Amino acid sequence: MTAISRPFGITLLAVLHVLQAIVFFLGGIALIALGALLRRGFFGVHRLLGGAASLIGVVVIVLGLLYLVLAWGLWSGKGWAWIVSLILAALGIIISLILLLRGGLGTLIVLILDIIIIYYLLTPRVRTFFGESKPAQQPQRGIQSVQSTPQPTGGSKFCSNCGAPVQGNEKFCVHCGKPIP
Asked: Does residue 59 contact residue 46 with C-beta atoms inside 8 Å?
């Protein structure tokens, strides 16, 4: 079985998650440092606020670590990373819609990006990379590919690659993932 190369969009998502993790790490370190300053009594603030800032900083660093793990999972084609990415994008859509209803037009870009990410993650090539669907089998050179599925004559459409029936206006075969002409 041949290895499926990583799609460029997945590489891009993994790199963006690494950058996001770096931002989380730096933000978490800054919050821990701020918490230490507040606990020492700088700025005339109560010590409890310093402890809360440090605790939030630790949580932010843990989130950064989780984004690094997700980036690795995407990079290496782990199925769980595909599922987690779908869930995160869906949550992003829900949060963006709520914020849009409250008047935050700035989240419109995030909403559009999350929709694009979900669409991209559900494309046949990306699903195949993560093992969520079977790769299309390519006929070997010099050997004729024999159709094992009979092709009834009628108004029905069938995939020219694997012979599976095609429903309605499908753009890709649900069986092998090949584009329907």
From this structure: no
